[in-house]
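Board notes (copied after class):
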Amino acid sequence: MSRSVSWDDQRIFLSALETGSFAGAARALGLSHPTVRARIAALEEALGTTLFTRSVNGLYPTDHALDMAATVRTMAAASELFVRQAAAPSDTLSGVVRLSVSDFMAVEVVPPILARLRQSHPGIRIELVASDRVADLLSREVDVAIRNIPPVQSVLVAQKLPPVTLGFFASAQYLAARGVPDCVEDLAGHDLIGPDRNLRELALAEALRPAVAQAFVLRTDSHTTVAAAIRASVGIGVMQVPSASRDPNLRRVLPGIVIAELGTWVVTHEDMRALPRIRAVFDALVAGLSTYSDKGDQ
């Protein structure tokens, strides 16, 4: 290594890795394209290695670059945590809390909870990470997370909530045009919205009825997309019962069938739990999600 490597250079490397291009990194960081290209070239020279191969389709990280990615992401998370901790004294109900939730919950479930939190604690600001990827609480990538699997690390504090029921739903317009199925076998004659490559959800579909898999007219692993397609009358699909039951245009199909019970946990790091702003967000999520899970159609 010919010289020390600055955090700014590593930040540019990470952005180029995640966006897949110099132009994408430049936009994300507010820098010029030539600056990003020059900084990556200088970083490669300093490290004595090639980080990316260039092509007309963008950047392709080398194996060495991929090996370093986890370390740089950990540093980025630590840097963001430093900023969040510095934004407010630890003993006040103000400052930034970084929250990780799935795409579906970010759209369908969490906003009303955050609205109530905003009213009760106006000094708290939320950075919402909407992704189905499990965010890393150990490296402090986020402060609080809503997960559908229990944490296994002893340093994580979790509150288990009542499970959320999954059921079949369709729009009133779809059912008026196609009829209401009376049994599982009837689903084979309907347009169904189902999973694409999610192995767990594909197994549920097969276990329910092998013939059902042949009736899928739309496959997607995005639960937010499934909900939008159901509302647009594309067909019958699976949604969280409390969320779908709030929509007056949706009807539960085969209400006696429970597709699955979705476990839900609110999780944070034990070192963060005592901070007032973290505790306020954690408790607001527990209260809001407990109420949400009770709102199935009876």
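Comment from the instructor: The two ends are 66 Å apart (CA to CA). The longest helix spans residues 63-86.
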